[in-house]
Amino acid sequence: MSQPVLSARGLGKVIKGRTILKDVCVEEHRGSVIGVIGRNGAGKTTLLDILLGFSPPTSGESKVFGHDSLALPATVKGRIGFVPQQDELIPMITGAQHLALHSSLHPRWNGDLVDRLARAWEVPLDRPVQVLSVGERQKLSSLLALGHDPELLVLDEPAASLDPLARRRFLQELLEISSDRTRTVLFSTHIVSDLERVADRIWILREGALAWSGELDTLKESVVRLQVRARRALPPGLALPHALTQQVRETWASALVSQWSPGEVQSLRDSLDAEVEVQNLGLEDLFVELHA
Amino acid sequence: MESAPTLPARFFVLQPASGVPIYRQLVDQVQRMVASGQLAPGTALPSVREVAELHSVNPMTISKAYALLEGEGVLQRNRGKAMTVAAGRRSQGTLAQRLRQLEPQVDALVLAARQLELDASDLAEVLRRKMGGKS
Amino acid sequence: MKPPVRGIARIAWLMLTWRPLMRWMLVAGMLLSVAGVLAILLGGTSFTLRMFVFLGTGICLLPVAITCGMMFRAIADSRAVQFAPHGGFKVFAGAFTTLIAMTLAAALQWSVALGAGSSPGFGVPGSRIAEVAFVDAWGAMTAFFFLTYYLTRPRIGVIAILGPLLAAGLFLGFSPDLHLPRPNSPDREVFRLFVATLLGWAGFGTWFLGRSSLWHPAGGPNTVVRLLSRLVRVTGRRPQSLRIVLSGPLDARTTAALSFAACLALFAFIELVTAVGGSSRRHGGAVLFFHVVPYVAVAAGSATGALPGRARSLWLLGGLDRGQLFRLAEASAWRQFAASAGAALLACVLVDEFLLHSNGTEFPLLVTGVVAGVSMLYFQLFRTRGWPVGDIAVSALVCALWTGGISLGQESLRDPQVAPWLAPFLLLDSALVLILRWRARRRWEVIDWRVCKRPPTWQGWTGSS
């Protein structure tokens, strides 16, 4: 039973009276690629910030590599790579100078990886940051976070400003990096299609609470949409088992249910005396349904 | 020593955005290919890495599919070499198991039939006709 | 109201109140100064009441003064404004109206305060009070406007080079030492400098309204800062890596050199202006020049404000805990402060030693100025939570001590009524510094970078997208 890389228990955050996060509990182990999805304002960035110690939680605790996030020792910090949503680059100096700066701040620096990626991603290193486009700056930020071979890589909306080709290359690189299963990658995004390719675990944040966390495959298999067409009017107080969202209108009902297993369809048909259609949804549809 | 032909990675059609998880799509496709004879016993399957790279998906989901297929006896692992289709596995599992595999498609068919107000005998006729052509 | 007037009024209102903090300060300042004015009108003549008025108007004027140029540029740059009919004119008129309105309000109150009684130290002849008050206030507002306009994100243009010098000169010519005796030809000096402000506005207005604004993309690069950084080569000595992340590539030596050079240039300009006017070269020059120090010190202290937000980058990179980050930020702040304020101080002392020979009567001004700068430095380190009410109160205190320090420092060796206040004042200011440091240290232990964000001007200063 290895120590979890990330763990949070009862995490809550309130800023100026607004509840940003409530009672978030997660635990992730080495080697996973975790995607965090949620609407804008659902608390993704805040959650990432609290996990990494940038912000103290109002309640609960969060740990990285077994250490409390607010008091991470220097060695642990050296094992983390973070790409923030808004880059924190210094406008006046060039990409190459940034790399030199960061390499001097870390004991371990993988120059070959950095060179290879800079070429593959077409990141200009000889121009001052202030003249680079937003996509190029994002790529440079990612480069800086990867250079010291971090064991935990956290990316906040890393591909939001990249064109589809650049995004595909970026994701491939992420996969490549995490393929040996020693690195843990956590990234937040609202581009759901990227997640479906790359992530094996998902956290869904809805209004500050964790609506779902677990494996993506399990999510797709166990959260389904049911369309019920009954012969007689359905009782208005009908509560389908494990329904996350549901709508009932006379003889028709639609619901998003979790913890579904295929055997249940027959029992549901019998108990409701209705046609029950089970629809497996892609992640984007799941996401939209969840917020319906 | 016969040379084991390798199935190209692009033979698989993977849709990450589908409601069916990627590993399940792969498992289903391999099972259907083996059942229909497209994949002869001894054919080598493309490596996990190849499939993952071509389709830009997480390699773990591919290896999960392969492990599942190995568990069901459809594939066999050869030390140091690619996974190959296991011999003598034309009919895998009992009748009940195989029927269960088809259940999603049968459900969809039944639903569509009901919407079109067709009954079981209509469907049976169509099925017999379609399947009668094959052995 | 006719549409153009409505647009202008709205812009003027925006400039005065675009942050809640500014509204607070406006109200607080008004209350204070109006209270003082009423008391004086009802017969009070004490020094304290006068200080109330000056302090109150200072609090009202300060936020507008500091932000008007920046706000003006931000509004004028937006394409929506450029596409609106007569958009440029409305913005210009709005800004002008704001400044005139504030000036008149201040001048009115200052006239009352200055005119009350004939206590020593306020040696302005009675008949000229209103004029002097108006021109002083107007000059200060004009100077602040140009300074903030050009030092945020300027564009290339003829005025770009003259602007800062002109502004600084006017600024020093009219800085709030209203009780400076003007023994020689006050009429000519006041009139001449008033004309200078009008010329400045006319030139600026012509340039601004005449340019084909659609050709300039919104948000150009900071030309003045780029020019400056090209003139100054970063020295060969490589600054420590962590410090670059915190305070940028300019090292202390470069800052000091820049500051020293700027002070000397300023002094030359002032000499030019005051010598031409025929006023007492020795006395006028020294006092005016020494005023540089309080302003430079407070500006240098304010620059620390970016550090709490920027320290976020070092949390993971630097391997430091929050206490160590505080010490690093403090050291960095001191380095920059010592470089700029120290250079200004050095320039002052040298110029005084070799050219002015003022017998050191103005030295207390240097001391109070520097102490005010240090308290501003720690105040900025203390500000890690945005602007809660307590911080606003503390900022008012810091500002009050700064303005009070200028008056005190200037008069204390000349005016026996004022002299006993100097030592307690310095003690109070020093105590404030220590308390601020203690509280800042505590706050940094639990600094929340979700609330304490990186300052937006980090990008704005160098004009990136």
Order of helices and strands of chain A: EEEHEEHEHHHEHEHEEHEEEHEH
Main β-sheet description of chain A = 6 strands, mixed
**Percent in strands of chain A:** 25-35%
Q: Extract low-pLDDT stretches of chain A.
A: none
Q: Please report the first level of CATH classification, the CATH class of the largest domain in chain B.
A: Mainly Alpha
What best-fitting shape of chain A do the alpha-carbon axes yield? elongated
Q: Please summarize the sheet with the most strands of chain B.
A: 2 strands, antiparallel
Q: Which radius of gyration of chain A do the C-alpha atoms yield?
A: 22 Å
CATH architecture of the largest domain in chain A: 3-Layer(aba) Sandwich
- What is the CATH T-level topology of the largest domain in chain A? Rossmann fold
Number of strands of chain A: 14
**Text of the CATH class of the largest domain in chain A:** Alpha Beta
CATH superfamily of the largest domain in chain A: P-loop containing nucleotide triphosphate hydrolases
Specify which chain pair forms the largest interface.
A-C, 32 and 30 residues
- Name the CATH homologous superfamily of the largest domain in chain B: Winged helix-like DNA-binding domain superfamily/Winged helix DNA-binding domain
What is the CATH third-level topology name of the largest domain in chain B? Arc Repressor Mutant, subunit A
Radius of gyration of chain B: 17 Å
End-to-end span of chain B in angstroms? 32 Å
- The number of E-state strands of chain B comes to 2
